[in-house]
């Protein structure tokens, strides 16, 4: 990375690495200031100007692309000069642009050591990024697991509370539908708990199938489920959804050659019927409506009206 100049400013000799940077050009005999632009000190346009800059750090760059930057120091020699060049902070660009290796640098050049440090830092940063990504994935998985019912894959009570708090704070309208299975204990007693688990998984599939992507379906107890239907408070539409769910729950569930038979009772509260909807109160009121359905059922659906004279409205099945 050195160049020797004649008194006229022409290159008489160039180091091997410098020649590698411009393999298609004949450096010997070329005018130095036509190959390089001296950016500092300013006003260097002739060999005499270069020689006056002896001992001063030169800032240069190639005039043609890639316009690699250099640092240099000039030492007068005979009527010409010797300029020792280095890449400085342009080293990484130079290694990339010219495919340089350690063999292209002098054994005493600390550039190679710097490259090793940069490579080590890059490797460490890459390893750190991968570790952070793995930790982030693990964190997301842990959070997802903390909000998920492991048997059915539905949201759990913790996730439901989070959804209700968010809806309550936003003032959005919603319906809260509490579903409890009828005759589920008989399934566990006669066919065993594996059959009961299978039934719960089938119920989860039915509830997800009867709701929209923006709705929430959660398992909050052994055979209890809660549906949060966002933006839906029309009693006719809600009763149609409840009736479809009840009808599907009454269909026998096959399990190992046997048929598990259940039904469902549902209680619903509507945020639009409250002056200031409170999720805890709505849950309690939906629970009251549910048990009204169970007393009059099975397979019934009841709305809770929290007006001045609270009352239940049970919608009889077909």
From TrEMBL:
Pfam families, per this entry? Answer: GGDEF
| Superkingdom of the source species | Bacteria
Keywords (alphabetical) are:
Nucleotidyltransferase, Transferase
GO MF annotation, one: diguanylate cyclase activity
Major enzyme class: transferase
Q: What is the residue range of the signal peptide feature?
A: none
| Record EC number | 2.7.7.65
GGDEF domain: from which residue to which, for each copy? 172-306
Which InterPro entries does this UniProt record tie to the protein? Answer: DGC-Regulatory_Protein (IPR052163), GGDEF_dom (IPR000160), Nucleotide_cyclase (IPR029787), Rev_trsase/Diguanyl_cyclase (IPR043128)
| Region annotation (Disordered) ranges | 297-318
Name this polypeptide is given: Diguanylate cyclase domain-containing protein
């Amino acid at each position: 990375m050195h160049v020797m100049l004649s008194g006229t400013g022409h290159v008489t000799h160039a180091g091997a690495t410098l020649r590698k940077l411009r393999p298609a050009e004949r450096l010997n005999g070329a005018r130095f200031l036509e190959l390089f632009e001296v950016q500092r000190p300013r006003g260097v346009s002739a060999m005499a100007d270069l020689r006056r800059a002896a001992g001063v750090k030169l800032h240069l760059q190639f005039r043609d692309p890639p316009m690699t930057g250099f640092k240099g120091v000039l030492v007068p020699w005979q009527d010409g000069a010797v300029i020792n060049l280095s890449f400085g902070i342009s080293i990484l660009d130079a290694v990339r642009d010219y495919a340089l290796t350690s063999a292209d640098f002098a054994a005493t050049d600390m550039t190679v050591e710097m490259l090793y440090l940069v490579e080590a830092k890059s490797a460490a940063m890459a390893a750190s990024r991968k570790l952070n990504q793995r930790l982030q994935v693990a964190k997301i998985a842990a959070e997802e697991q903390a909000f998920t019912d492991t048997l059915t894959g539905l949201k759990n009570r913790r996730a439901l509370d989070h959804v209700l708090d968010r809806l309550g704070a936003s003032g959005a309208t919603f319906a809260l539908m509490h579903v409890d299975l009828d005759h589920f204990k008989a399934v566990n007693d006669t066919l065993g708990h594996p059959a009961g688990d299978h039934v719960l998984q089938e119920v989860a599939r039915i509830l997800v199938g009867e709701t929209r992507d923006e709705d929430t379906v959660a398992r909050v107890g052994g055979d209890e489920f809660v549906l949060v239907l966002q933006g839906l408070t029309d009693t006719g539409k809600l009763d149609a959804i409840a009736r479809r769910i009840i009808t599907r729950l009454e269909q026998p569930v096959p399990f190992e050659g046997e048929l598990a038979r259940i039904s469902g009772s549902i209680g619903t509260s509507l945020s639009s019927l409250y002056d200031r909807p409170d999720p805890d109160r709505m849950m309690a009121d939906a629970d009251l409506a549910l048990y009204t359905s169970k007393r009059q059922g099975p397979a019934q659906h009841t709305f809770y009206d929290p007006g001045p004279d609270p009352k239940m409205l049970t919608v009889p099945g077909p």
